[in-house]
Design a protein that fits this description.
The protein is mostly helical. It is built from five helices and no strands. Helix 1 runs antiparallel to helix 2 and helix 4 packs antiparallel against helix 5.
């Protein structure tokens, strides 16, 4: 999480600098960097249980990528082919 927060702060500082200097070539990549770091921070909070499944960002991702269920269980099921381990994790 530390690297994500550092990326967010770094991108924000460079974005403010680009606005002050009116430099579009520095501004555009740092807007993208801030957006990606914000998404990364939200996903980290969600996987740590600090962000509920009813949060607007999580609902958007579930709708956009047609994923239902609890966090990474779909990945475990697809890798394990519906194995007993995936079924056990699903019940918890």
């Amino acid at each position: 999480m530390g690297l994500t927060v550092a990326s967010l702060i770094n991108g924000f500082i460079w974005m403010v600098y680009a606005l002050l200097m009116r430099d579009v070539y520095v501004f555009i990549p740092n807007v993208c960097a801030v957006a990606i770091a914000a998404v990364n921070l939200n996903l980290y909070q969600w996987t740590q249980g600090k962000l509920e499944n009813s949060h607007w960002f999580i609902l958007f991702l579930q709708k956009r990528f047609n994923v239902k269920g609890n966090k990474s269980l779909r990945v475990i099921q697809s890798i394990g082919g519906g194995s007993r381990e995936a079924t056990t994790l699903k019940r918890q």
